[in-house]
Design brief:
This protein is mostly helical and 363 residues long. The protein has a single domain, classed as A middle domain of Talin 1, CATH 1.20.1420.30. It has 15 helices and four strands. The strands form two sheets. Strands 1-4 form a two-stranded antiparallel ribbon. A two-stranded antiparallel sheet has the order 2-3.
Length: 363
């Protein structure tokens, strides 16, 4: 299918509608001089929706280009799909950094990792118990944990992610992707041994259509991220909610919805791709997403968000990653009760957040 079919593609229609809705609401509210909490909330919701659909649009085009290039399914999942599903996080953290909102960027990335490795992975596992391949766990699972620990180390040394530290994170990610591509033939042999993996046989879209999906998906994502950061900040100010809480909950869950959708779809066809999608995104976020944002402007943990990020968000994120890896290691199988346990971890995190916000617990 080419450009004519792309114009009628449902995802493009939805993405364009969300974009026009945001522009229309902003224009009417400005012309009528009417500004309220409800309008701010509606724009935040529309921006989150636009981020999700634009990321899906980007993924469709990027996967098509990768498939036509003959990359193995697992490499596509760990590179193209992971970058595509992390596009909302990349855009939100970069826009937050440009606006000087370091707490929102940091908590957003850590919140995204936490929600993916606990709530979203738990939902996927409860929906369908998964068997884990040893190579995925030893290679990508450990790299995920290492990425989170390195980011934590940089943040806690002087409470600021400097540009040179951000550069190291980005270079580590580039090295990881380069290694995957250089060993794609070995990885393909591993995939061929797994009978349940679905092979890749090209794309239904032409190269021209795929390129347009990538361009328009990226453009819509940039616009949506800018609107989300701007109006999320206004919403936080109106509700007297700290930026860190907004970043780790609403932004963290909202920008992680592409991973949830793709992981649930993958779980129906494959035992490994679903886990690989989430692990791949949790490598991209603490290395590439926040690394790019830190290159734009150093990200500092402000005094107002210090206790929340250092004593609650970071420990829960590391705990969630370690628990998930331990569960995967036990007989290399993810059981449904373990999925419920991961969901409970995220619920406990939300309860702790609320208790801290109400000053029921202090540090």
């Amino acid at each position: 299918m080419g450009i004519p079919q792309l114009i009628h593609f449902q995802t493009l229609v939805t993405t364009g509608s969300l974009f026009l809705a945001i522009v229309a609401i902003r224009f009417l509210s400005r012309e009528m001089g009417y500004d309220s909490l409800l309008i701010t909330f509606v724009i935040v919701c529309l921006a989150l929706g636009l981020l999700i659909y634009s990321a899906d649009f980007f993924i469709e085009g990027a996967k098509g280009l990768a498939r036509r290039g003959g990359l193995p399914e697992v490499v596509i999942g760990l590179t193209v799909v992971s970058i595509g599903t992390s596009l909302p996080e990349i855009m939100v953290t970069t826009a937050s950094a440009a606006d000087g909102l370091g707490d929102l960027a940091i908590s957003g990335i850590l919140g995204s990792v936490l929600v993916q490795i606990t709530l979203i992975m738990g939902i996927v596992v409860v929906n369908k118990g998964l068997k884990i391949r040893e190579s995925w766990l030893k290679r990508d699972g450990l790299i995920m944990l290492l990425a989170v620990l390195i980011l934590t180390f940089f943040l806690l040394t002087d409470l600021t992610l400097e540009r040179w530290e951000s550069g190291i994170l980005v270079m580590l990610y580039v090295a990881y992707i380069t290694w995957l591509l250089m060993h794609r033939k070995v990885i393909q042999l591993e995939e061929d041994e797994n009978k349940e993996e679905v092979g890749v046989h090209g794309s239904r879209w032409t190269n021209a259509a795929n390129v347009n999906m990538v361009i328009f998906g990226l453009a819509f994502a940039v616009f949506a991220a800018d609107q989300l950061v701007k109006y999320a900040e206004l919403l936080a100010l109106d509700l007297n909610v700290p930026h860190a809480i907004i970043g780790v909950t609403a932004s963290g869950i909202g920008t992680s919805l592409p991973e949830l959708t793709i992981a649930l779809m993958a779980a129906k066809r494959s035992q490994g791709v679903a886990i690989g999608t989430l692990i791949g995104s949790n490598i991209t976020d603490p290395l590439l997403s926040i690394g790019v944002a830190g290159l734009v402007r150093p990200l500092a943990i402000q005094e107002a968000g210090f206790e929340l990020i250092v004593y609650i968000i970071i420990p829960f994120t590391i705990l969630g990653c370690m628990m998930a890896l331990i569960m995967m290691r036990t007989s290399y199988e993810f059981k449904k009760w373990e999925g419920y346990t991961l969901i409970l971890v995220y619920i406990l995190f939300l309860v702790t957040l609320e208790a801290y916000n109400r000053s029921w617990i202090t540090f």
